[in-house]
């Protein structure tokens, strides 16, 4: 076999491998408009329990639930609950669980921004881990100041905000992070459920994100663990 024939054979094998890959991806993915491809998506485990969270909120060990309700944000119903701990100000836990197997995350943070109409400052990433179950989360972390346009709170506040999409094995504020993990899960005929989480933690106007990091992280860890446990329940 001459060199030219070898090259042609290698190119042909590469093209076949690429075609098989594209067929695999084409057969399993959703597109970003929220429409499915040619086949029905695989079911999401514990989807009914996730839906119930819109009515019940989360049980957070070590935190007192001072009230829970549904709130329409961006045309969808979020669970909003007040969580308090001795010596801490009352925080607001907002969650939007996945509703159906075709529903995908993508606009949740824009919806929250538009709802509160706050001024954001100093956005950065904040990572944390949990132990029960073991997960690693990278969250969107920023300081926000309510404005005159913020009509949904009785008094203007300065708050630390932490946001991420919670999954059974971790979390990230990027919808794309969830998307590709869900696609690969479908190769194994599985799915990756998601819950959008937005924490609103009141702080002193002069405080920095670094000042309150140790205060907000215990709440974030409790929220992530509670959601992951529901997702992983047999």
List the helices and strands and how they pair.
Elements: H1 3-28, H2 47-56, E1 64-73, E2 76-84, E3 91-97, H3 108-116, E4 119-131, E5 134-145, E6 158-167, E7 170-172, H4 175-187, E8 195-203, H5 209-232
Parallel strand pairs: 5-7
Antiparallel strand pairs: 1-2, 2-3, 3-8, 4-5, 5-6, 6-7, 6-8
Question: Can you characterise this structure?
Answer:
With 234 residues, the chain is of the alpha+beta class. The protein folds into 2 domains: 1-40, no CATH class; 41-232, no CATH class. It has helices at 3-28, 47-56, 108-116, 175-187, 209-232; strands at 64-73, 76-84, 91-97, 119-131, 134-145, 158-167, 170-172, 195-203. Strands 1, 2, 3, 4, 5, 6, 7 and 8 form an 8-stranded mixed sheet that branches. The longest helix is centred in the first third of the chain and has 26 residues, at 3-28. Residues 19-38 have low confidence and may be disordered.
Report the biggest beta sheet as strand number plus sense, adding barrel if it closes.
8 strands, mixed
How does the overall form come out from the CA principal axes? globular
Strand content: 25-35%
Helix content: 25-40%
